[in-house]
User: Fold this.
Amino acid sequence: MAEKTKNKKQNNKKISSIIAFAVCVIVAFGMWIYVMNVESPKYSQTVSDVTVELTGTDKLAENELAIFSGYGMKIDVTLSGKKSIVSRLAAEDIVVTADLSRIEASGRYSLKTVVDVPVGCKLIGVSQDTVSVYVDRSGQITVDLTEKRENTDLPEGCFTGAIEYDVDKVTVTGPLSMLTKIAEAVVTLDMSGITKTTTVTERITLVDAAGAVVESPYIDYFPKEVIAPVTIMKTARVPVEVKFKNGFLSYDSANVFVDPEFVEVTGDSDTVNRGDCILPVVIDEKSAMHGGIYSSVVTIEAEDGLELSAQKAKITVTLKPGYAVREFTVPEENISAKGVGGVKFTWQEAPITVELLGKTEVLARLKPDDIKISFDVSPYSDSNSGDIRIKADIEVPEGDADGVLPVGTYYVNVTFGKES
Assistant:
């Protein structure tokens, strides 16, 4: 029995040893895989499109030189090292430079590239160990800013006015060989979608004598864009309108003749489109219709900023049948003062002849005795003296008041400081 137990223990010990050995082999193999694939110092990798930075450009500027070509050159860099480091590198992690500080004259130069190797890496090689640059004398010119318009189809009757940009010159700096190709600066104004006055910002481009765009990373210019106030103008034929101040006359009761009947109005399209850009000519029937006829040359007034094809118009107004102007001599007993109080005054007690505009049927039944004239002395006191003309008010019977309108202004001569 003891022998059997002893054999069993020996067998278990052998099995444990075998398992332990297998585990060690597996762990060792894993570590070997890790070292070979991650920590091995023999791993290499090529990083593509690493930009070559040009240094020493400030020294070029001191010598009045500028780079004509060479900016933005890219090379491939091959590095070795631990895979955990090298495999994570990108183009922006690697610094490659070429020094221009020793260049003192114009020409083409081949510059050696210098790689700043990242920590833990070793440089194996580069796709090219030199880069070519061309430098030239730097200079500055000033060119005219010109305008080019595209898609200029505007609404009917509309056109663009002159555009005043905030600048008319552009300053350009860069290599002299490139500057000599630049003829002018152009702003292209795209009119598509513009239907009313607005402000747009447009970019400036440089062009040669043939109109081809001149572009280079070595050229700088100012300004690069301009603000363009675009005014959309319109010309329209607008009638000259006549209105009556007191509303007594209208086109139903008066013949209105206007010469010219229409004028051409030119200005901002929004203003012209409103239709009320010309101010109506206002005629005061009370002061203008003496004898039943009005004729005068008046100034046509418009909103600010508008141009008119005619500045003057002749307006003639006559009365249509059924309307007339009639004179009435009002007797002195129908003339009275208002607001007398204690003020001392006398007035020239004499008849006053007035004109009334109105319907002929109303004028026919009115008599001089139906008309009253009054003048107000209440604004005056005993401190007033001498002769003063006071405006008179004309009154007609209440039933006829809407059918007539006094024409003209009438006064009563009053002398203050005397008993009436």
